[in-house]
Write a structure and sequence with these properties.
Number of domains: 1
Structural class: alpha+beta
Oligomer: single chain
Distance between the termini: 60 Å
Number of strands: 8
Mean pLDDT: 77
Length: 217
């Protein structure tokens, strides 16, 4: 799939690759480039959601950007080869992130707060895209093999709206969105939180001892 701006100075390519056994997502490779040197060449390994063909791109695993200077062509070629050779690792991590998002339940207020932050603080969404997200929340055009109030469903409502992103910002928007859900909300940490809470509670618990010297928590 290819997209350009009106005068063709900024272009984008998205390739859907036949890889992976996950029922929800397949492998994707995307790039963006400018022919007026207004934007660095960028590329990233990601995933596409089968149901809606939305994109999923990690913000820290598999992205590359390079100015149009020096030996940029060779570096870009080498980077693409490196990313493709490690695509399985990137893809597997995105699948894990997806499974984490599926079990996070969000209230309407939490969904509204997330969308507002992505508009005002993160500059990921535009006002028109917020309207698309609102419509999808109220009357979804797709179901994503997850509860309607899950973080994964909201994530896909947002990536559906991001299909309107300019080629210049498409990869950055998706990377910032993924980081927002996974890093800022610490979704990965939620899955190890029970163990951490146990340690913290153990340290804070009252310690009692009987005459035998055995310590009880």
């Amino acid at each position: 799939m290819y997209k350009t701006n009106l005068n063709g100075e900024v272009a984008q390519g998205i390739y859907h690759l036949n890889h992976g056994t996950d029922s929800d997502m397949g492998l994707m490779f995307a790039w963006s480039n400018s022919y007026n040197k207004m934007m660095k060449f960028k590329c990233a390994v990601g995933a596409q959601v089968f149901i809606c063909m939305n994109g999923v791109v990690s913000g820290d695993l598999s992205n590359y950007a390079r100015k149009h200077t020096g030996n940029a062509l060779q570096e870009a070629t080498d980077t693409i080869k490196h990313q493709i050779s490690n695509a399985r690792t990137y893809y597997d991590q995105l699948v894990k992130d997806k499974e984490m998002l599926k079990v996070i339940t969000l209230t309407k207020s939490q969904q509204a707060a997330i969308v507002g932050q992505l508009l005002i603080e993160q500059d990921v969404l535009t006002l028109s895209q917020v309207g698309i997200v609102k419509r999808e929340i109220e009357t979804p055009t797709h179901t994503y093999n997850a509860p309607a109030d899950s973080a994964w469903t909201l994530y896909n409502h947002i990536t559906l709206a991001l299909k309107d992103s300019h080629p210049m910002s498409y990869l950055n928007d998706h990377q910032k969105l993924h980081s927002f859900f996974v890093d800022q909300y610490r979704i990965t940490k939620k899955f190890i939180q029970p163990e951490l809470l146990f340690v913290e509670e153990a340290e804070e618990a009252l310690v009692e001892s009987d005459d035998s010297g055995v310590i009880f928590l």
